Amino acid sequence: MSDYNYNNGPVYTGEVVDDKYNGPGSEYNINNNQPNNEGNGAATASLVLGILSVLAWFLGYGAIISAILGIIGLICASVSKKAGNTSGVRTAGFVLSLLGTIIGTIIFLSCLACAITSAGLTGCMALEMATEY
After folding, report:
1. What is the DSSP letter of 19?
2. Given this model, what pLDDT does residue 97 score?
3. Number of H helices, E strands in the chain
4. Taking a C-beta distance cutoff of 8 angstroms, is the pair 96, 47 a contact?
5. CB contact set of 77 (below 8 Å; sequence gap of 6+)
6. Would you call 22 helix, strand, or coil by DSSP?
């Protein structure tokens, strides 16, 4: 069978063309000229979780929440990338989620170190006072 119908033009034979206009990373699918929307939901979720993870820095115990939301946002960005989404929404979600994870973890660990240090000093001071009297 020929790939060209002389009456109506080219005939789609069912073969997938792997080039810059067709495939997971393309903006348009050559078969139907519609935008490639695969992974948009995961990209949007990544962006929302990234924003929430950055905002959670300013809460009292929000640093651990920030790290958790950031990790989930990174997973969503990865799923979106595997689906072929290369939009700026996915990139922004990835960057914000990464920042939320790293800085949230740093804040959490520094608060944990302060809590351990102050608890240790309080315990030492109580022991000193008990032995003096």
Report:
1. B
2. 95
3. 3, 2
4. yes
5. 42, 43, 46, 90, 93, 94, 97
6. strand
Report how far residue 34's alpha carbon sits from residue 26's, in angstroms, rounded to the nearest whole number: 11
Place of tokens 């032995």: 131
Contacts of 114 (CB under 8 A, 6+ apart): none
Token digits for 1?
């069978």
Mean pLDDT, 10 residues at a time, over the chain (133 residues)? 54 54 53 62 92 85 87 93 88 94 89 78 57 58
Q: Which two tokens stand for residue 54?
A: 């950055």
Return d(Cα 103, Cα 66) in angstroms, integer.
8
> Which residue type is seen at 96?
L
- Amino acid of residue 65: I
Can you say whether the dihedral through the CA atoms of 19, 25, 27, 33 is positive or negative? positive
